[in-house]
Fold:
Amino acid sequence: MRETARAAASSLLVLAVGVLLLLALPRLLDLHALINATIFASLAILALSLAFVWGFAGILSFGQAAFFGMGGYTYAVAGINLGDTTGAIALGILVPALFAALLGYFMFWGRISDVYLGVITLTVSLILFRLLNGTAGDAWRIGDAPLGGFNGIPQTPGINWPGRPGEALTPDGVFYLAMALVLLVYFGCRALLASRFGRVMVAIRENERRAELLGYDARRYKLGAFAIGGGIAGLAGILFANCVFVSPTMFSLNYSAQIIIWVIVGGVGTLLGPLAGCVLVQLVTTSLGSAGWLNANLMLGLILIGFVVLAPSGLAPLPVTAARSLRRLFPGARA
Structure:
């Protein structure tokens, strides 16, 4: 009963903070800062994709950036060719999910171990990075969409109102959409974890052999979780494409490493922790990049080492740990 009340209070707090940010930030921030906030929201969804796959399904995907970039490229190519981004958004989610399902089928039915699974996903991401880097020139195009090589697709179409191709969302509108999708993905993941599928998935993470002896096919549940994570990462790529533009850097090792750092900093096995970890790390690296006095990649490495050594469970358990320490110091105090 206490755990249920705590979960309900946590959900209400996240919803209240999310709605407050959604309503307040467009009024407080200038255009440049608002676009940065939208980028943070898209990256927060990307962090949720790995938090779900790694933290609750036990699948360490080093190449989550592959689905992130695939979502962005699919959206841009489909939007240019269709002239309407409504279908492009659907394809930008569906194609990465199907690709993740196909890749996962060969990995899970091949009984690939966790270490090799991480290496395979990272390799796929880097292959796509190298492939798209070499697509400069007029010969490399899909329909009317030139791939552009290292420069990517700068003329990425903006999200338009459904059925109204000529009416693109304003930067405020894209931010509202991004924040609403952060909340939708967060609560959608929580609802999925509370379902039978989610409970079995966590049981497989804890002890795969025991779950299989109880009659559950671990490969099917892992495949489902991996495909869902790919679709969520594709959604993040679509939003990111509307803030910056689509380029091969979305598949790069830099993004693959950052996603891992966000989840470790926030706490593996939580959803709210990686959200906080993503925003915190991005704020720090963006500030350092603007100041120019310390290399942002060096700071990322220091943050990772610091959390692995000093707080291996991440940010999420810190309030509980602090409360327990206070109870030990003051046994008569209420929690």
